[in-house]
């Protein structure tokens, strides 16, 4: 796409200069890229399906016909600038792309990047083509800010620094708040702050870094991020040899114990709940920076010294294995801390003469100097898969060159939140090119994610991307100069380039797909070393793997970052409104790659559509099941499969990888120890592990997953009914009981009638004045439930579906144990569960009495209490996807799947009988799904902390 050539006179006509000769790869001279696209007008109306409120509305927006409605909604609502309803409001994707690309082209032209005006125009057209055709995307701050009257902030990732002075600590609070206000996240290492066991110059005892974390945490929780509703994104790191390391390790696990106590007392400690604000340290990800010396001490069972921050002497020694066990135990309890492997990080550091890499951004993919930032862009890998399932290495490499050029140009015009960050970033010009859709690419080509072949493909693509990026960086250095810090770090930078190249040479190939990719990567690294030896490099860092949450939806990607597919069935928004569930398009392509005929492909796809997995799909050979393994579901990828994929790509990245390794609830502390230890042995830079259901503050849990899944599986054959169910009517005289209640000030009562031989047979719920609409609806609902109970629908099903349904009236109840209810229906079915279900069934659903919860908290057996105490109930505040999917939304059109789910995560739960740990989107109420180390909403594109 571009090459270096001698150009015409530079600005001001002084002498000759070199510039990029831009080769057109995607566009044609004389034809604007927009003219080759079919455009259409659409109406964007985004609602919260829970209450029917409209979150965003803009009608008549213009987008390419090939763009999905999901992408249209997210771009129109998040990236279009101007007040909604005003003439200044952007209404076309053309306007958005013109606004952004125009600044890049003009800045490149003004700063000597292009050999001629024709090359500048070619760059402009190629960039616009790639954006409009979803070949790649810049990170969100570019779309928010570039070309507007706002500051031209283009970076999403920031690293700060804190010294051992009160002035520096207060500056940290201020700088972090400024970054949060702008919608981005920041990380910091607090290891320079003296420990709580060391003295101040005045003679007093220091507070220690953990105490200062409280103030920063409160600030982050107050400011939020970008002035929006999602929490701030931040990372706090402490070195393993800090004397306060044990306190740091257990900081969040102790708070998790507090959350459980508050929950059992009836407080609202859901994510976003009114009482969660009393819990500390919840706005940051915590990581321990472990050294090779410490890990070797763990390996050998040796002692390890903790050193003074002021004198450098060893203050105390600890058992390395005991401390490592403590890290694993804490992470098992609450998912923090993660580990960052300092030896590997520093070994791949291109600028050690300037300073160490001490911290990372909140998602751990950006690791560089203190007080620096990084702008990101991600390539859509699936766009380069040809019809014959070969990978278009040439076009991929050319796009990489184009994107790296544009990213470097952005540093020239970018604004930064603090002057220190601006100085460091301009001096070292850190970039973060990455990709999305790796999981979809592997599946489409018949590669299992957790396989040698899948890892070889991923490693080859990553090597080609980074080698090409650094080659272009070396070419830019010959045109506009090296980064300012290159001279003092030249030897170190060259050493790291040789390490990347050597890793590429050692890459073990398995199949045919990756061979031409690896050949191209080898050539790219050879050219990179040759040109870099002559010119140096323009950028200290080039690549990383980010979460690609919102921009992944903008590009219509099936998978984000380095992640595998989340599930085999997804939800697709329709242009006319509503949504429908579709089987991922990669699946029929994968089946064709594996040699299945069209008739079998159709049958297998239909089976997946109904069941959500491939087990026992007609005609599908068991040895091919692994190709369709996903992050969640009936067949999920084992934890070490994720770790091995990270290890395969890490040697070909300047930075690190945003990814959390998810493990089942049954995982042990020993499993965490093994994963963390293997991460070090395999050469990762960072690793975080999340155990399902470990956090009470997560509004969804997977309690009873196995039993529920078995029930769902065993129920599948009964879908095709041989005999109609028989109604078992209640006798004329039957036992019943009535319970009065108030929920949020609304009064009502429940009358429950039972069969003489036990078993609930009817329920009548009264609420509101007789003759009112509400009373009529409740009467009709009562009759429907009663008839269903008599036809054999288990009460457990109703409890599972209707508890935690949220609507007004809601709030405090007069029940001694159900202190809070999300709605009247929520209260009623909790009460019925406690009165009519045995302990075993209730515990699987998370519904326990107050006495049972007290016994559980005290380490006693709640089932013994259940045999003695008549229940009053309160379940842990857990929000399940199943019941939410059944709530009728006034504005939701009846085009959802048969499960009436509202997101892919909810559909997976409905079909496969488990509940996923994931927050609900605060904007639209949809259940989010994992994206790297964050969560992203596929309904509106909101993220839980990553930009």
List the helices and strands and how they pair.
Blueprint: E1 2-9, E2 16-22, E3 39-47, E4 54-64, H1 69-78, H2 93-110, H3 117-132, E5 136-138, H4 140-145, E6 157-159, H5 166-181, E7 185-189, H6 209-223, E8 234-239, H7 245-264, E9 285-290, H8 292-300, E10 303-307, E11 314-319, H9 320-334, E12 338-341, H10 342-347, E13 372-380, H11 393-413, H12 419-428, E14 431-436, H13 438-444, H14 452-480, H15 486-505, H16 514-535, H17 549-554, E15 569-573, E16 579-583, H18 586-593, H19 598-611, H20 639-649, E17 660-663, H21 669-681, E18 686-691, H22 705-715, E19 736-743, E20 746-754, E21 760-767, H23 773-790, H24 795-802, E22 811-812, E23 820-821, H25 824-836, H26 839-845, E24 847-849, H27 850-857, H28 862-866, E25 873-875, H29 881-886, H30 904-912, E26 929-931, E27 934-936
Parallel strand pairs: 6-7, 7-8, 8-9, 9-12, 13-14, 17-18
Antiparallel strand pairs: 1-2, 3-4, 5-13, 6-13, 10-11, 12-18, 15-16, 19-20, 20-21, 22-23, 24-25, 26-27
Describe this structure as you would to a colleague.
Its cofactor is adenosylcob(III)alamin. Belongs to the ribonucleoside diphosphate reductase class-2 family. One of its GO terms (molecular function) is cobalt ion binding. Among the domains are: 331 residues, no CATH class; 140 residues, no CATH class. By secondary structure, it is an alpha/beta fold. About 8% of the residues have low confidence. It is globular, with a radius of gyration of 29 Å. It is built from 30 helices and 27 strands. β3 and β4 form a beta hairpin. The longest helix is centred in the middle third of the chain and has 29 residues. The two termini are 29 Å apart. α3 crosses α11 and α14 runs parallel beside α16. Strands 5, 6, 7, 8, 9, 12, 13, 14, 17 and 18 form a ten-stranded mixed beta sheet that branches. It has a three-stranded antiparallel beta sheet with strand order 19-20-21. A two-stranded antiparallel ribbon has the order 1-2.
């Amino acid at each position: 796409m571009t090459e270096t050539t001698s150009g015409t006179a530079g600005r001001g006509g002084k002498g000759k200069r070199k510039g990029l000769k831009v080769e057109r790869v995607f566009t044609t001279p004389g034809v604007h890229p927009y003219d080759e696209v079919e455009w259409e007008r659409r109406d964007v109306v985004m609602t919260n399906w829970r209450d029917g409120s409209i979150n965003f509305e803009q009608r008549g927006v213009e987008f390419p016909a090939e763009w999905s409605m999901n992408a249209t909604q997210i771009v129109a609502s998040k990236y279009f600038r101007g007040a909604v309803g005003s003439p200044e409001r952007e209404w076309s994707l053309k306007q958005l792309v013109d606004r952004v690309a125009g600044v890049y082209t003009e800045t490149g032209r003004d700063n000597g990047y292009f050999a001629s005006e024709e090359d500048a125009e070619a760059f402009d057209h190629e960039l616009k083509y790639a954006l409009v055709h979803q070949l790649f995307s810049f990170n969100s701050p570019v779309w928010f800010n570039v070309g507007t009257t706002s500051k031209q902030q283009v970076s999403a990732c920031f690293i700060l620094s804190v010294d051992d002075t009160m002035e520096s600590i207060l500056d940290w609070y201020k700088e972090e708040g400024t970054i949060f206000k702008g919608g981005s996240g920041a990380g910091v290492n607090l290891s320079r702050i003296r420990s709580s066991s060391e003295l101040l110059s005045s003679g007093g005892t220091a507070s220690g870094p953990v105490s200062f974390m409280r103030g920063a945490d409160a600030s982050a929780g107050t400011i939020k991020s970008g002035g929006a509703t999602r929490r701030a994104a931040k990372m706090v790191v402490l070195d393993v040899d800090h004397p306060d390391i044990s306190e740091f390790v257990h900081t969040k696990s102790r708070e998790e114990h507090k959350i459980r106590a508050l929950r059992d007392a009836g407080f609202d400690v859901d994510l976003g709940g009114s009482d969660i604000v009393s819990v500390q340290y919840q706005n940051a990800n915590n990581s321990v920076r472990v050294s090779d010396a410490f890990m070797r001490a763990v390996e050998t069972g040796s002692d390890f010294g903790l050193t003074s921050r002021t004198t450098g002497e060893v203050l105390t020694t600890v058992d390395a294995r005991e401390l490592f066990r403590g890290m694993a135990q804490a992470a098992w309890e609450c998912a923090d801390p993660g580990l960052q492997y300092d030896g590997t990080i520093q070994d791949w550091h291109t600028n050690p003469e300037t300073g160490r890499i001490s911290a990372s951004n909140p998602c751990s993919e950006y690791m560089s100097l203190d007080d620096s930032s990084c702008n990101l862009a991600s390539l859509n890998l699936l766009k380069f898969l040809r019809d014959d399932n070969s990978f278009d290495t040439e076009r991929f490499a050319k796009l990489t060159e184009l994107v790296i050029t544009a990213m470097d140009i952005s540093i020239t015009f970018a604004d930064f939140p603090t002057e220190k960050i601006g100085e460091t970033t301009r001096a070292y010009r850190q970039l973060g090119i990455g990709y999305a859709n790796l999981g979809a690419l592997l599946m489409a080509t018949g590669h299992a994610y957790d396989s040698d072949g899948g890892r070889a493909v991923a490693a080859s693509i990553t090597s080609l991307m980074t080698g090409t990026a650094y080659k272009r960086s070396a070419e830019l250095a010959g045109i506009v100069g090296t980064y300012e810090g290159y001279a003092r770090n030249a030897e170190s930078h060259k050493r790291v380039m040789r390490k990347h190249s050597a890793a590429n040479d050692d890459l073990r190939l398995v199949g045919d797909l990756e061979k031409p990719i690896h050949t191209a990567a080898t050539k790219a690294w050879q050219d990179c070393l040759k040109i870099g030896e002559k010119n140096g490099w323009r950028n200290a860092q080039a690549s990383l793997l980010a979460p690609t949450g919102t921009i992944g939806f903008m590009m219509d990607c099936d998978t984000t970052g380095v992640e595998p597919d989340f599930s085999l069935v997804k939800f697709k928004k329709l242009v006319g409104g509503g949504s429908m569930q579709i089987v991922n398009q990669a699946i029929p392509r994968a089946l064709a790659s594996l040699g299945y005929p069209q008739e079998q492909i159709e049958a297998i796809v239909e089976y997946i559509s109904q069941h959500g997995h491939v087990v026992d799909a007609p005609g599908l050979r068991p040895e091919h099941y692994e190709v369709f393994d996903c992050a969640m579901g009936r067949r999920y990828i084992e934890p070490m499969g994720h770790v091995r994929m990270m290890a395969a790509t890490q040697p070909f990245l300047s930075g690190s990888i945003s990814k959390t390794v998810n493990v089942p609830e049954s995982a042990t502390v020993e499993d965490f120890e093994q994963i963390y230890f293997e991460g070090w042995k395999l050469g990762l830079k960072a690793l975080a592990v999340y155990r399902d259901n470990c956090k009470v503050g997560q509004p969804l849990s997977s309690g009873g997953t196995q039993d529920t899944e078995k029930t769902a599986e065993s129920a599948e054959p009964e879908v095709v009914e041989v005999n109609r169910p028989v109604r078992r009517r209640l006798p004329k005289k039957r036992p019943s009981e009535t319970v009065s209640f108030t929920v949020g000030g609304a009064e009502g009562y429940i009358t429950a009638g039972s069969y003489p031989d036990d078993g609930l047979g009817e329920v009548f719920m009264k609420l509101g004045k007789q003759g009112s609409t509400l009373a009529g609806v409740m009467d009709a609902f009562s009759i429907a439930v009663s008839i269903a109970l008599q036809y054999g629908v288990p009460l457990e099903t109703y409890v599972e579906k209707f508890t935690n349904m949220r609507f007004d009236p809601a709030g405090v109840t007069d029940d001694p144990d159900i202190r809070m209810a999300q709605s009247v229906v929520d209260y009623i079915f909790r009460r019925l569960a406690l009165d009519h279900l045995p302990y075993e069934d209730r515990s699987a659903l998370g519904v326990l009495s107050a006495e049972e919860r007290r016994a559980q908290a005290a380490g006693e057996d709640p089932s013994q209490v259940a045999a003695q105490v008549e229940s009053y109930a309160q379940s842990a505040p857990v929000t399940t996807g199943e019941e939410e999917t059944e709530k009728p939304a006034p504005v939701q059109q009846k085009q959802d799947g048969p499960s009436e789910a509202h997101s892919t995560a909810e559909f997976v739960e409905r079909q496969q009988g488990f509940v996923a740990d994931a927050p609900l989107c605060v904007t639209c109420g949809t259940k989010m799904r994992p994206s790297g180390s964050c969560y992203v909403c596929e309904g509106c594109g909101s993220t839980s902390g990553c930009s």
